[in-house]
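hey
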């Protein structure tokens, strides 16, 4: 009977995890992060609600694995390329030169941390908590899991202010995680063995160099397909080894998982593999953990305690104050609404607060009520801060930025396309090897051409080629194109297009999410269309009847059906691409954030629709 009861609890938790995103979609509650909704659903079925869940080995094990995997993916989320100081400064709309992103982000976090210490001292003086170091970690941490998707949704991830916000969150994530391990080492029974943490970090460094050495080997590429999937096996082995070592040296298992995630991020793995890990983590293990967080919260007991009830608004205010005043330095470059919106977004906190609260409760540093209060504050912050960010962030800031397209290799094709794109919402540039003789058109002053001494990765990196939104590599050497395309993907360029004529090489690159262009195939396809379907060919080549792609970024239209869509211009939506799915639109089709709409119509109305869907 106990076995049946435990399995019933697991089934209920899995059903709740499955139906939660469906309910959010049905009732159009897109402003609530899914993980927060999972905690709320856990409250309903747990100790604060119907109390139908019983702890057992299955649930505890899967919840712990979800916690470990969450910390691993938190490490993977850290984009170390953001720390690059090679980013060229650009002029802001107000005419000022944007600040050094890394320097100003470091300064802002230093201010956040100092202010967090002062605010923590006030909470200790007021008698709310005894451990000042724990409260400092709670106030100073920032949730990458909230910041990253919010920046992407706003379309400002690659802008100056977006990168500054991201860098502040990354630095906060790194520093607070390390300090949490120090806190645990000092507070637990085995305190005073902090030097053992050096063993853990040293092991991580060793694994990094091993990974660098073997990553590019041919046999690893061969073993990464089919039923072997050596890369995935290596990642899970890395997680388990570092988690086991972390517990052996007296640290928390999440530190080992976090270090494993940062190592994977540093090694720039294939993005397809990262998506698989995300799917496994956020599709199975992590929802179980968040639902169980809600199950274990005793909300009514917490709210009956006057001190805890008073602490909730005070801590929310402290979270905002600790971010607002340091961020004010950005007023030297940005308007007040942008700065205020940035402060709200940086107030968000979740995963690390839950980790710190649960660990502190387990080692008897805080009570269960205090742990629940800290988690509840984190949940509230994750609901409020994205809403306030969208409310205050200026619409025009998201709309001003052009898509940066860089062509590597000057030829008749890249020159012509660059000129055409330069007349629309694209910022184009051509990088060309100085030693090569390009066509006579390359001397035309109407083209923005940067001449370099060679197509080495280091030279291209220095020239800012890998800072592009879209990188089109079109040199005369397809092997070089392939090598540079892979290097660009490793540096996390969002879209990489390579000119490749060999079918086998094209297939290998496509598997790494690199888009391939073939001059021969493109010419053949167009000629065939001209012969068989001249009207279709006319659509592809005519400015008046051309097809256009628009990315849907405006949350006002999220989950709105096409039948309800108020835009009535001279535009027809031909197709909607959602991830890898191709959708034939009809009246009941819902628009979702990041949908790519293929439309045709007059240029005037296409531009109007683009503004409507992309700018909030």
């Amino acid at each position: 009977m106990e076995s049946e009861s435990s399995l019933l609890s697991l089934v209920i938790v899995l059903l709740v995890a499955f139906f939660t995103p469906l309910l959010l979609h049905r009732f159009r509650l897109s402003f609530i992060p899914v993980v927060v909704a999972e905690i709320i659903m856990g409250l309903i079925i747990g100790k604060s609600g119907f109390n139908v869940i019983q702890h057992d080995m299955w649930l505890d094990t899967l919840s712990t694995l979800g916690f470990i995997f969450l910390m691993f993916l938190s490490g993977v989320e850290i984009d170390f390329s953001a720390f690059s100081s090679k980013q060229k400064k650009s002029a802001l709309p107000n005419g000022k030169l944007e600040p050094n992103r890394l320097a100003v982000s470091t300064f802002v976090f230093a201010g956040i941390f100092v202010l967090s210490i002062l605010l923590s001292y006030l909470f200790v003086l007021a008698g709310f908590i005894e451990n000042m170091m724990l409260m400092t970690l709670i106030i100073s941490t920032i949730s990458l899991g909230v910041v990253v998707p919010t920046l992407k949704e706003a379309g400002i991830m690659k802008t100056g202010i977006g990168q500054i916000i991201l860098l502040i969150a990354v630095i906060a994530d790194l520093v607070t995680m390390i300090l949490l391990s120090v806190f645990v080492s000092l507070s637990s029974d085995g305190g005073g063995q902090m030097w053992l943490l050096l063993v853990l970090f040293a092991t991580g460094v060793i694994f990094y160099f091993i990974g660098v050495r073997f990553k590019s080997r041919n046999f690893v590429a061969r073993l990464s397909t089919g039923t072997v999937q050596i890369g995935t096996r290596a990642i899970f082995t890395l997680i388990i080894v570092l988690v086991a070592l972390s517990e052996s040296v007296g640290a928390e298992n999440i530190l080992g998982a976090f270090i494993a995630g940062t190592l994977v991020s540093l090694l720039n793995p294939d993005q397809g593999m990262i998506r698989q890990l995300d799917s496994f983590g956020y599709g199975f293990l992590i929802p179980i953990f968040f639902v169980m967080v809600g199950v274990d919260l005793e909300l009514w007991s917490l709210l009956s305690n006057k001190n805890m009830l008073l602490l909730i608004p005070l801590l929310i205010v402290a979270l905002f104050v600790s971010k607002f005043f340091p961020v004010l330095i950005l007023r030297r470059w940005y308007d007040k609404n942008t700065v205020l919106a940035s402060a709200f977004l940086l107030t968000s906190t979740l995963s690390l607060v839950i980790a710190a609260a649960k660990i502190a409760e387990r080692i008897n540093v805080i009570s269960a009520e205090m742990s629940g209060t800290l988690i509840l504050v984190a949940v509230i912050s994750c609901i409020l801060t994205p809403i306030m960010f969208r409310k205050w962030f200026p619409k025009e800031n998201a709309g001003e930025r052009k898509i940066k397209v860089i062509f590597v290799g000057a030829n008749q094709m890249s020159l012509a396309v660059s000129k055409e794109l330069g007349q629309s919402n694209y910022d184009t540039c051509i990088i060309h090897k100085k030693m090569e003789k390009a066509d006579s058109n390359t001397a035309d002053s109407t083209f923005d051409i940067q001449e370099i001494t060679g197509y080495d990765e280091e030279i291209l990196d220095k020239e800012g080629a890998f800072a592009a939104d879209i990188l089109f590599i079109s040199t005369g050497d397809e092997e070089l194109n392939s090598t540079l395309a892979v290097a660009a993907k490793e540096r996390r360029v969002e879209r990489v297009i390579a000119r490749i004529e060999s079918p086998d090489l094209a297939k290998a690159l496509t598997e790494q999410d690199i888009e391939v262009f073939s001059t021969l195939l493109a010419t053949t396809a167009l000629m065939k269309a001209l012969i068989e379907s001249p009207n279709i060919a006319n659509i592809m080549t005519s400015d008046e009847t051309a097809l256009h792609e628009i990315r849907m970024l405006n949350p006002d239209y999220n989950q709105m059906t096409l039948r309800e869509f108020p835009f009535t211009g001279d535009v027809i939506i031909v197709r909607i691409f959602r991830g890898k799915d191709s959708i034939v639109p009809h009246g009941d089709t819902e628009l979702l954030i990041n949908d790519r709409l293929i439309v045709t119509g007059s240029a005037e109305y296409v531009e109007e629709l683009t503004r409507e869907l992309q700018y909030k």
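Residues 436-443 have pLDDT under 50 and may be disordered. The first strand starts at residue 403 and ends at 408.
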